[in-house]
Design goal:
158 residues, alpha+beta
Length: 158
């Protein structure tokens, strides 16, 4: 498995990966190519968007890290990081998320972020478990969501 920065050529594959997650009920946000490009690969607040690829170049998952701007949709304090992780159904339990977070953690430290927020549905046991395993701690819940924070000054990646 290789972890690398996402590029324009990944947009179609990421759209398909996210579409499969939506079809399985694991995602509710859009996943068309324009959304993937604008939200993940080329968003102006992005610090990093990493993809995990298999030895044959197949996309296994992605993780995006952006700097929270004031008034963001997640209510994350300005200057923190906002993380999103999506691992393909075929790639679960293969260390993809852990490998992605190692790269994202390094990018967050290089960007000088104090904390990273992960907000997910309270009914998403996979995401809740993943972020807990990476060292994120719950710090708020609201209207069916749970927000977990990773303190970059106090924690090291698992």
């Amino acid at each position: 498995m290789q972890i690398r920065q996402a590029v324009e050529e990944d947009v179609i594959g990421l759209s398909h990966l996210l579409g499969a997650l939506a079809a399985a009920g694991k995602r509710s946000l859009p996943y068309d190519e324009g959304f993937v490009r604008d939200r993940y690969v080329a968003h102006p607040d992005n610090i990093a968007c990493h993809v995990a690829v298999d030895d044959d170049g197949s996309l296994l998952g992605m993780q995006v890290l952006m700097r929270a701007a004031g008034g963001n949709a997640y209510g994350v304090p300005a200057g923190w990081g906002i993380i999103g992780t999506h691992v393909g159904l075929h790639a679960a339990r293969r260390g993809v998320g852990k490998a992605l977070f190692a790269r994202t953690h390094a990018a967050a430290q290089a960007a000088g972020l104090p904390k990273i927020d992960a907000t997910m549905g309270a009914d998403n046991p996979e995401a809740l478990g993943y972020y807990a395993a990476m060292g994120f701690q719950s710090y708020r819940s609201d209207a069916g969501t749970v927000s977990k924070a990773f303190d970059l000054n106090a924690a090291t990646p698992v």
